[in-house]
Specification:
single chain; 8 helices
């Protein structure tokens, strides 16, 4: 099975000012976000990525560029509208402090599967398109490059949380229990039997061990010994 690294974009000017950017054009990484993206690119430099797929929004493309600059090989680079930010409709561009006073806010927090943004899309529709896109890319990459292939998808917080919830077998109503910070890395392997969620919301540490394909799709009873070349195994 291939390995997909889900990367959230680095911090933006909207994140720093508490505004829901949504799909607003021109929202870019701030100085902190640029540094975060560089560090993530450095972390992924130990992995021979075969592809980097990005949301079309500027903040994701900037983060994807930082990843590409640290690759010594020549991964393909593409943009996919299906992993773009949720369409928050009339909520887009508004301050989070104001949105928290809306009746819909509590629905988003406690029953997101029922949340439909006025003038936008539902969180359920967002999850469906994002999961389908990631699985489609993953299958195509594995078919072309083999089961040891590693690739990255650069997207947004709610998008990545919804993909992780699906991989974990969680109902969408539980996805707010997950945290996905700016420039963080989450890793999933879509096996024949079930998805294997390797890590969530990681922002530090060596990732070279991810290049080693698991010997089997089966889960090891008792937990197993872990990858032989992981940092802990070497220490």
């Amino acid at each position: 099975m291939a390995t997909v690294i889900l990367v959230r974009h680095g911090r933006t000017t909207a994140n720093a000012s508490g505004v829901l950017a949504g799909r607003t054009a021109g929202v870019e990484l701030d100085a902190v976000g640029i540094d975060q993206s560089v560090r993530t690119g450095e972390r992924l430099s130990t992995l021979p990525l075969v592809a980097v797929v990005s949301s079309p929004l500027e903040r994701c493309r900037q983060t994807a560029d930082a990843i590409m600059k640290h690759q010594t090989g020549a991964p393909t680079e593409s943009v996919d509208e299906a992993i773009t930010e949720c369409d928050y409709g009339d909520w887009q561009g508004r301050a989070l402090a104001d949105l928290s006073k809306e009746d819909l806010w509590s629905v988003v927090q406690t029953q997101p599967s029922a949340a439909v943004f006025p003038g936008g899309e539902s969180l359920g529709a967002m999850q469906s398109r994002a999961v389908a896109a990631i699985r489609r890319h993953d299958a195509a990459i594995e078919a072309e490059h083999g089961p040891g292939a590693v690739w990255a998808a650069v997207s947004h917080g709610d998008i990545i949380k919804s993909i992780l919830a699906d991989a974990l077998g969680m109902h969408l109503d539980l996805f707010q229990r997950l945290n996905v910070n700016p420039a963080s890395v989450s890793v999933v392997r879509f096996g024949a039997a079930r998805p294997d969620v390797v890590t969530i919301n990681s922002d530090s540490g060596d990732l070279a061990w991810l290049a080693a394909k698991p010997a089997t799709d089966d889960a090891t009873v008792g937990g197993g010994a872990g990858p032989e070349d992981s940092p802990r195994a070497r220490s």
